[in-house]
Request: fold
Amino acid sequence: MCNLGYSIEIEALNKGKRKGKTETQLENIRSLMKNMHWTVEEAMNALDIPEKERKGLLKKLETTA
Reply:
């Protein structure tokens, strides 16, 4: 049973880390777009955001804009 609790705790920590990374990426994208007058694509290129993550970030940007 200890292993199950540990696994749940690790998964929760990993989920929190992913959420924090996403929020930081969104803040950085918005900042570059505002301050540098860049498009979202230019901002993502500057931040070296992988293609596989861009669709999800674009969706979040649209819902929070």
